[in-house]
Amino acid sequence: MTPTPAQPAAKRRRFRIHHLAQAKAEGRKLTMLTAYDFQTAQVFDEAGLDLLLVGDSYGNNMLGYDSTIPVTLEDMMRATSAVARGAHYALVVADMPFGSYEDTPAHAFRSAARLMKAGAQAVKLEGGRPVAPQVKLLTEFGIPVIGHLGFTPQSENALGGPRIQGREDGAAQRLLDDALALQEAGAAAIVLELMPAATAAFVTSGLKVPTIGIGAGPDCDGQVLVWTDMSGLSASTPKFVKTFGNLRKDLVDAASAYALAVRRGTYPDPGHSY
Ligand code: KIV
User: Fold this and answer.
1) How far apart are the CA of 29 and the centre of ligand 1, in A?
2) 168 and 261 assigned to the same domain
3) Are residues 252 and 177 in the same domain?
4) Which H or E element spans position 54?
5) Taking the model in full, what pTM does it have?
6) How far is the CA of 14 from the centre of ligand 1 (A)?
7) Which of 18, 181, 250, 262 is 20 to 30 A removed from 270 (C-alpha atoms)?
8) How does pLDDT run across 67-119, given as a tens digit for each residue?
9) Strand, helix or coil at 15?
């Protein structure tokens, strides 16, 4: 069972890579959120999340890019080291950015090793059978890998933007074949993004390793969301996102109240001065 903040810290164990398979075997849903910095990593760790994903959505959500394509390995290393310093229980997974792994397994290993040295405990990369050799080499050399199928944002130019995948005839079977190739190569879990719930359920039931869904319905073995979306900080969100907070309004209110107090001279008051 996932420890919650209500449980004494001593009872919490670090979530490790083998707990992914254990969770699937026990039918326990996996919980994952993105994190891009030290503070949010601390908060989500305290909240009891199993996994923190230093997603390359860092590019969209923190750096203001309109896609993940410009994100560099150095960007990911900086964010990963900050998250790793804040996470004491959750497993820290770092995304391998576009251009850091696709061409050869050796390139993938060099890039993944830098992310692991920065503090990652696993890496995630996008794609199916074509990247299976990369997954095999990384896992053989001690780097746990999570796969990513369906809508893969690094290929958004080829896919025609963020569109639901796996709808056409035979697509579910093709996705399962890709997932099986990743599983065979050693992937510890597979993220399924933007696909009909029935397709994700079909893929999930055909695998030994867990799936973690995002916009892929309720039947995956776990769920992941971008934290700025689920907390209500993002200005807009895709249809599949449920917001569990109102952070944008809370921050606007806090910043406005602060500015008003400064302008009125009511802050700093004697209680906040030395
Ligand atoms: O970068 C990211 O946030 C991701 C999720 C969409 C799974 O890869």
Assistant:
1) 18
2) no
3) no
4) strand 51-54
5) 0.95
6) 22
7) 250
8) 999 999 999 999 999 999 999 999 999 999 999 999 999 999 999 999 999 99
9) coil
Let me know if residue 145 belongs to a domain.
Answer: yes
Count how many domains the chain has.
Answer: 2
Which residue minimizes the CA distance to atom 4 of ligand 1?
55
- Which two three-digit tokens encode residue 177? 């074949």
Tell the residue number behind the tokens 């394509």, with chain if given. 69
> Which of 148, 154, 223 gets mutated to test ligand 1 (max ligand atoms within 8 A of its CB)?
148
Token pair for 239? 């249809």
Contact assessment for residue 200 and residue 223, using Cβ atoms and an 8 Å cutoff: no
Please list every protein residue whose CB sits less than 6 Å from any atom of ligand 1: 34, 53, 55-57, 95, 191, 193, 214, 224, 226
Catalytic residue among 46, 126, 140, 193: 193
Q: Say if residue 81 is in the same domain as residue 177.
A: yes
Q: How far is the CA of 57 from the centre of ligand 1 (A)?
A: 6
For residue 108, what are the domain limits?
18-243
Q: What is the pLDDT of residues 211-268, one digit of tens each?
A: 999 999 999 999 999 999 999 999 999 999 999 999 999 999 999 999 999 999 999 9
126 catalytic per annotation? no
Contact between 40 and 86 under an 8 Å Cβ cutoff? The reply is yes
